[in-house]
TrEMBL record:
Keywords: Calcium, Metal-binding, Repeat
GO terms of molecular function: calcium ion binding; calcium-dependent protein binding; transition metal ion binding
Organism: Gasterosteus aculeatus aculeatus (three-spined stickleback)
UniProt xrefs under Pfam families: S_100 (PF01023)
Name of the molecule in the record: EF-hand domain-containing protein
Domain EF-hand: 65-100
GO-annotated cellular components: cytoplasm; extracellular exosome
GO biological process, one term: endothelial cell migration
Length: 108
């Protein structure tokens, strides 16, 4: 994200933010909170992804019938194969899960 956009969201008061701006700010804050746990502050390790999923999306893990699903999800998120999930990869996951929950996937 550009520094200007980050500055913009960081300094808006919650009273003036739209719902979408608030959602975007929460995505950034959530990512940054979990990325700060270990290693690089710009990426999520496998352990950080697991913690994020356990705390922020507990229903997703409960519905997974196989404990290996987290590993599978992590590998599918790590588009560039660097064994970490960056913010862009994280946003793709959130968007895909949102589409699945909203039941508006591609209807061709």
């Amino acid at each position: 994200m550009s520094a200007d956009l980050f500055f913009f969201f960081h300094h808006l008061s919650k009273a003036t933010m739209t719902q979408l701006e608030t959602a975007m700010a929460m995505l950034m804050k959530t990512f940054d909170t979990y990325a700060a746990g270990e290693g690089s502050k710009d990426t999520l390790s496998k352990a950080e992804v697991k913690t994020l999923l356990e705390k922020e999306l507990p229903g997703l893990l409960k519905s997974a019938k196989n404990p290996g699903e987290v590993d599978k999800l992590f590998k599918s998120l790590d588009f560039n194969g660097d064994s970490e999930v960056d913010f862009s990869e994280f946003v793709v996951m959130v968007a895909a899960l949102t589409c699945a929950c909203h039941d508006r996937g591609s209807k061709k």
